[in-house]
């Protein structure tokens, strides 16, 4: 199964990411597209990436 990011999809802002604390991300696969057009496995992992920018 493949997912391709197209457009901006659901945009996650940094404020919503405050509820996630790395490295304790869950492993559930609920793919999201980042504004960088990459697919992230779930919201937590996307938020961790946003913090590193």
From TrEMBL:
A single GO molecular function term of this UniProt record: serine-type endopeptidase inhibitor activity
GO biological process, one term: spermatid development
SUPFAM superfamilies (alphabetical): Kazal-type serine protease inhibitors (SSF100895)
Domain Kazal-like residue range list: 11-53
InterPro entries assigned: Kazal_dom, Kazal_dom_sf, SPINK2
Gene3D superfamilies: 3.30.60.30
PANTHER family named in the record: SERINE PROTEASE INHIBITOR KAZAL-TYPE 2 (PTHR47608:SF1), SERINE PROTEASE INHIBITOR KAZAL-TYPE 2, SPINK2 (PTHR47608)
Protein name: Kazal-like domain-containing protein
């Amino acid at each position: 199964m493949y997912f391709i990011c197209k457009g901006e999809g659901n945009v996650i802002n940094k404020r919503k990411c405050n509820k996630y604390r790395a490295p304790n991300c869950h492993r559930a696969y609920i793919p999201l597209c980042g504004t960088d057009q990459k697919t992230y496995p779930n919201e937590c992992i996307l938020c961790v990436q946003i913090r590193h920018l």
